[in-house]
Each structure stands twice: as C-alpha cells, then as structure tokens.
Design a protein that fits this description.
By secondary structure, this protein is an alpha+beta fold. The protein is 18% helix and 48% strand. It folds into two domains: 122 residues, Nuclear Transport Factor 2, Chain: A, CATH 3.10.450; 150 residues, Lipocalin, CATH 2.40.128. A hairpin with a 7-residue loop joins β12 and β13.
C-alpha cells in the first residue's frame, strides 16, 4: 500500500473505532467538516437510526452527538477487508467490505491541510435492506377484512358445520402482525355458534425468519416457523401438538389490498385432511364480482 492508502485506511478505521467508543471529539477529527459532507447507511435493526441519510456537517454532527449519547460503548470494531483505492490529488474514492458483505461500504476522502478526512460515507448492507422489505411485506398485510365465504374454496375436507360469515383483523406490531378472527357458524340443526382465533407472526431481523403461534384459539393450537418469499408472500410450516399433525399456511396480498389465505393440514400419517383457499376482502368493499 502507498503512504496515502495507508493513511486513508487508518482514518476510515479510526472513524469506526471512535464512534464505537462514543468519543465524539476524536470521531469528529476524522470527518471533513464541510456542508457538502454526506453520510448514509442501513443497519439490521428497526429503529430511528436503522436507515439514515444526513447532508452537511451541521446535520451530521448534531445527529451523531445524539446517537453517541444514547448508545452504549461497543467493545469491538466491525471487521473490514478488501480495500480498493482511486486517488487523484487531494481526493480519493475508496470501497471495502464491512460486516462480511463485498464492496458494501464507500468513502469519498478529501485531504484537508495535509490530513485525509471522510467527506462522504455510504454503507448499504444488501441483506439488511432485503430484511427491511420482508418485514414491510409482512406488516402491510395489516387491515380489517371480511371473509369472502362465497369464494372460499374447500378442496379437501367437508365440515358438517357451515360458515355464514367471518371477520379478520390483522394488526401491525413492532416486528410483525397479530391476526384476530371470528367465524360465524351454523350447525346442521340450524343453531348458531362462533369460533375465534388469535395468531401471532413475528419477524426476526437477525435470521430473516418468521416465528408463528396461535393463542386463545377455539380450534386446535399450532406453532411453527416460516419466511417471506421473493414475491412478498408469508409461508409458515406449523405443527399441531394435540393431533400430532402439521400444516402449511400462506398469506398472499393482492394489488387491490385484498388478502388470500391458503391452509393445508396433514394428519400424523401425512395424509391431507384439510385444504382450502380463503379470500379476505377489505371491509367496506363490495365482495361480489
């Protein structure tokens, strides 16, 4: 490495180190204190600092002071590797790997009074960005729905009791959704009863997986794990401890805001005992074709 490359790398690593140590004065020495300065980054955490874009030293300084005052000291620095440099006079463009992601961090450096300073910082973790969108895909299922009984498809399984109507409320939570539903049922003798259920789906920002379970359920309880696929669908594989069966559920959101639920249930031998498709229409919309 040349002398400039070595000096630039040290400034980049010092900026990270002093930020982790919450030493504002030392950290500020690494930055070009210019109103053209620009900082942007993502993190795998859902918080006010998860996705940031700061323009100008005034804004950068103010926000970093807040962050350092509110965050504990980090004992170790993030690993960096594979530095690449383009240097021309008093300006330099640098890319490197951070958190194990290739070329995900960029620095534009400026030499000020003989010392290299960071003028522009960009750190985009593609995996983090994907996780944010998956959490968003899960949370945008939220809404008040009616169960479109007329369009419900029961492919396998023919219950004696018939459903006349149903309501489903999906609420957004910090890291997922809560699903509350009521099904209004009629027995063969004409008498009425209802079934209610409450299910939780929580997205883990570290693993990218969804954990799911049912509570306060008039039907058999279940629990399982799943994921958000590339189309934004929620797919969960679950087990039913009472009957020793298992199943697969899927939520698909249409472009008009309606949701379709798919449920397939297997007994302990692996035979499908229930397979249906349940359309949910946003309350207030006409469910007729």
């Amino acid at each position: 490495m040349t002398a400039d490359e070595t000096a630039i790398k040290k400034v980049i690593q010092d900026e990270t180190h002093w930020f982790n140590q919450r030493n504002y004065d030392k950290w500020a020495e690494c930055i070009a204190q210019d109103e053209m300065a620009f900082f942007s980054w993502t993190t795998p955490f859902k918080s006010e600092n998860a996705v940031n874009m700061l323009k100008g030293w005034t804004n950068i300084s103010r926000e970093y002071k807040k962050m350092m005052a509110s965050m504990p000291v980090r004992p170790t620095d993030q690993p960096t590797a594979n530095f690449k440099f383009k240097i021309s006079g008093d300006m330099a463009y640098v890319t490197f790997d951070e958190y194990g992601s290739a070329d995900n961090s960029v620095r534009v450096m400026e030499k000020v009074n003989g010392q290299w300073k960071i003028l522009r910082m960009e750190s985009l973790d593609v995996e983090d960005f994907r996780k944010f969108h998956q959490l968003y895909d899960l949370q945008r299922l939220a809404g008040d729905y009616v169960w479109d009984v007329a369009k419900t498809q029961i492919k396998i399984g023919s219950p004696k009791d018939k459903m006349s109507s149903g309501d489903v409320k999906i609420e957004e939570m910090a890291y997922g959704i809560r699903v509350n539903g009521v099904m209004h049922m009629t027995r063969p003798d004409g008498s009425y009863f209802k079934l209610s259920f409450e299910d939780f789906y929580a997205y883990d920002m570290s693993s990218g997986k969804v954990s799911a379970f049912s509570t306060n359920n008039d039907m058999e309880s279940w629990a399982g794990f799943g994921s958000i696929d590339d189309t934004g669908d929620l797919i969960v594989e679950f087990k039913r401890p009472e009957s020793k069966g298992k199943g697969i559920s899927k939520f698909h959101r249409n472009t008009d805001g309606s949701v379709v639920m798919y449920w397939t249930i297997y007994d302990e031998t692996g035979k499908i005992t229930w397979d249906n498709v349940v359309p949910l229409t946003i309350k207030g919309l006409n469910t007729q074709p």
